[in-house]
Design a protein that fits this description.
With about 700 residues, this protein is of the alpha/beta class. The protein contains 22 helices and 26 strands. Bound molecules: ligand MGD (2 copies), iron/sulfur cluster and molybdenum atom (MO).
Length: about 700
């Protein structure tokens, strides 16, 4: 039988790279980057290459289950899809009757396919749709809004034409987005200079021209000193600033005291090096990207770190510039119509969000809200009870700090539903598991990707499901039918796609040749002279009134981070190229490559504690939390220890991941209450540990 080629979308992480899957006799033979998508260059990252191991894994939920024992006990009853969905629908109706539809909470992993999820919640009449982002990029999103009046994705990163790229808290070669990596490598081949600011030497640092190892939590000081230097030495782009920046004089006065010499004491980076960086950036401007970060739910001032990064980009004139952060285009910018939205099928509920986002918290985006704030409401019932929680492709017990506290709060719920394709701590604690097919076995609604170009794409099924699992649209449309949401009770993928495409001039057949429908042939650069920022003044706002009115200063004076208590370390964490968050650790191929995490500890500090490379280590004197192998190195800052996130699994159904390594989120007691109030991101790196030989 001939090999079939199927164009689809990788699902091993939330980047969702376009892929081509070769299938023979319902067997997956090969997966590679979609060759018709130039940005991919046919490549995949190691996780994308391990997708077949996920499909073939018998250690994943194989059929719908309803809990039999206590929550978390792991006693399940196998049921049919009809029984599972009837059960969920009856419970949801019960909750709606007693407490109103607003007592239903939803959280998911965001991304391009969420339109259907939001429509479902609207249809029910609940405003409480959330995504995962308070533990990821919320601070960046709000920093972008406060400076430009636009979201973080309303500007793009033009790596290919960039002349100087600064990665701050961003490990681009290990925390991977394949097209970005390709773009950066192309840029570097053309001479782009790379600067990395991190608390440890990463693979990205290894490829950098300039590496700054900063004291953990002092990035805001670093950036204020760069701004100081750009202004004091007249290195900024005067033409751009005159036209597009408001209140420069206030910034100038504010940064007066934040000299490079002052920053040297905070950050540990020599003043001359900070000056040198400012000069280099000015020479390369406007083809400069000072990356505002991605996973910056780290400190109480991470919003301000990100905000200062956007201000540096503004001073260099790189906002809107080729080689910098050009404006993202949408279908309308190419004279095309976008996809018709499912969410428009129902009116916006009148009841306000429980977490206060968008009304009480005027500066926080009401779209995805801040999921963790809803957990407190489960306990207090203020402003109203939250009684049912649908957790779709999200593992809050791994992704949020202090899982013990979260479980306690969740115990006030009448219903927890988990939709998932792998086991997770959250699914294990749920009342009902609705198992999704892994991405190679499922298909999706259409999504639109914007950038310098825009295109439509969807996930196509490469092979039929091995087990009794469904695609997410199948689950949601069947549940909609049971909840009386007739407009969402689509019966087939064709119907869904036709609804979405109705105004676009595109048909389903147009996807066949390449898996994508491009809305333009040429990338479009629009300068800031053609469009204006979306702030009230139309300019970059150094002082943002929305934040000021909330009592949150736009120019917040720097505060030194709390020092670790005597003998302790700050916990720093991040990603590696071989795993995605916590959900690939049990993947047969990836587990073989990296079964456990290690603890990076600075050579000098390790010596004081009598710890040698490879020793087994215990944290906080608590052997119950497991042990972890020491990686003793000069290349991590002495004030912190670093560990990869996602390990320390304790579910008996995951034999390969079981008991290996340590889970960082478990070390973050009280962490739900620590966040950057201006940006809404959790402050996950404001926790400390002691370390001893096991
Ligand atoms: N301590 C600490 N906490 C962190 C982080 C950290 O580094 N340290 N990282 C933070 C970051 S950046 C993020 S984004 C969040 C991520 O947190 P999550 O969003 O919870 O992470 P994921 O593991 O991507 O997804 C959660 C679950 O969804 C399922 N899943 C994943 N991908 C898919 C898919 O394509 N389809 C379906 N159906 N299911 C899927 C898996 O079963 C997985 O168990 O965690 C954050 N929390
Ligand atoms: N392979 C792989 N790729 C991924 C993911 C994955 O799980 N695996 N997840 C995806 C997701 S959801 C996200 S959000 C992105 C995240 O992408 P990134 O944010 O780039 O990834 P991280 O590894 O979390 O963090 C980046 C760096 O921040 C450093 N850091 C920690 N504390 C500080 C500090 O105080 N100052 C400075 N300057 N640096 C500090 C860490 O050492 C780390 O090297 O990656 C995406 N891509
Ligand atoms: S970055 Fe890797 S894992 Fe993520 S979608 Fe792309 S190929 Fe898949
Ligand atoms: Mo993330």
């Amino acid at each position: 039988m001939a090999r079939k080629q199927i164009f689809s979308v990788c699902g091993m992480c939330s980047v969702r790279c376009p892929i081509m899957v070769e299938v023979e006799n319902e067997d997956i033979r090969f997966i590679k980057g979609n060759p018709h998508d130039g940005g991919m260059k046919g490549a995949l990252c190691p996780r994308g290459a391990a997708g077949t191991a996920l499909t073939m894994d018998e250690e994943r939920p194989q059929y719908p289950m309803i809990r039999d024992g206590e929550r978390g006990e792991g006693k399940w009853r196998r049921v049919s899809w009809d029984e599972a969905l009837d059960y969920v629908a009856a419970k949801l109706k019960g909750v709606i009757n007693e407490y109103g539809p607003e007592s239903i909470l939803w959280s998911d992993r965001g991304g391009p396919f969420r339109d259907l999820h939001m429509a479902f919640m609207r249809g029910l009449g609940s405003p409480n749709y959330c995504n995962h982002d308070s533990s990821c990029a919320r601070n960046v999103q709000h920093a972008a809004k406060s400076v430009m009046g636009m979201g973080r994705k309303d500007v793009s990163y033009d790596y290919r034409n960039c002349k100087h790229l600064v990665l701050q808290t961003r490990n681009i070669f290990e925390a991977i987005n394949v097209k970005e990596v390709n773009g950066v490598l192309d840029g570097m081949e053309k001479g782009c200079e790379l600067t990395v600011i991190d608390v440890r030497a990463t693979v990205s640092a290894g490829k950098a021209d300039n590496f700054f190892m900063v004291r953990p939590g002092t990035d805001y000081a670093f950036n204020l000193a760069v701004i100081h230097e750009l202004l004091a030495a007249d290195l900024y782009n005067k033409e751009f600033v005159a036209k597009h920046v408001k209140d420069l004089d206030k910034l100038r006065i504010f940064v007066q005291e934040y000299t490079p010499e002052w920053a040297e004491k905070e950050t540990g980076v020599a003043a001359e090096r900070i000056r040198g960086l400012a000069r280099k950036l000015a020479a390369a401007a406007p083809a400069v990207i000072w990356h505002p970060g991605w996973m910056v739910a780290r400190y109480s001032d991470s919003f301000y770190v990100s905000r200062s990064a956007y201000l540096i980009n503004a001073l260099l004139g790189s906002l809107g510039a080729k080689g910098g952060l050009p404006i993202t285009n949408k279908p309308g910018d190419f004279g095309r119509k976008g996809l018709k939205k499912f969410v428009d099928l129902y009116p916006k509920p009148e009841v306000k969000r429980a977490d206060g986002c968008g009304h009480k918290l005027k500066h926080i985006d009401g779209g995805p809200g801040l999921v963790h704030l809803n957990y407190d409401i489960m306990e207090t019932g203020d402003p109203y009870p939250i009684k049912a929680y649908i957790i779709h492709r999200h593992d809050p017990l791994m992704a949020l700090p202090d899982p013990e506290a979260i479980r306690r709060k969740w115990n006030n719920l009448d219903l927890i539903v988990a939709t998932t394709f792998s086991w997770s701590d959250t699914a294990w604690y749920a009342d009902v598991i609705l198992p999704m097919s892994p991405y190679l076995e499922r298909d999706s609604v259409i999504a639109c990707k914007n950038g310098l170009k825009s295109f439509f794409f969807y996930r196509d099924r490469a092979v039929a499901p091995r087990y009794d699992t469904l695609s997410d649209w199948e689950i949601l449309c069947r549940l909609s039918a049971r909840m009386g949401l007739d407009k969402l009770a689509f019966k087939s993928l064709e119907e869904l796609h036709e609804y979405q495409l109705q105004d676009t001039g595109v048909t389903r057949a147009d996807f066949e040749a390449t898996g994508q429908v491009q809305l333009t042939d040429v990338a479009k650069y629009r300068t800031m002279d053609e469009i204006s920022f979306k702030t009230p003044s139309g300019k970059v706002e150094i002082i943002n009134d929305t934040w000021e009115e909330m009592g949150l200063p736009s120019l917040k004076p720097y505060e030194s981070p709390e020092a670790p208590p005597e003998g302790q370390f700050r916990i720093a964490f991040g990603r590696c190229a071989l795993h995605t968050q916590g959900h690939t650790v049990n993947n047969r191929l990836l587990n073989k490559k990296m079964p456990e995490n290690t603890l990076w500890i600075n050579t000098g500090r390790a010596k004081e504690l009598g710890i040698a490379d490879g020793d087994m280590i215990m944290l906080n004197n608590d052997p119950d939390k497991g042990t972890i192998k020491a990686f003793v190195t000069d290349f991590v800052h002495p004030e912190c220890v670093f560990m990869l996130h996602g390990f320390g699994h304790r579910l008996p159904v995951e034999s390969r991941a079981y008991g290996k390594g340590i889970a960082d989120q478990e070390l973050m007691k009280g962490g739900l209450a620590r966040m950057d109030k201006a940006g809404g991101g959790l402050a996950l790196q404001e926790h400390f540990v002691s370390v001893s030989k096991a």
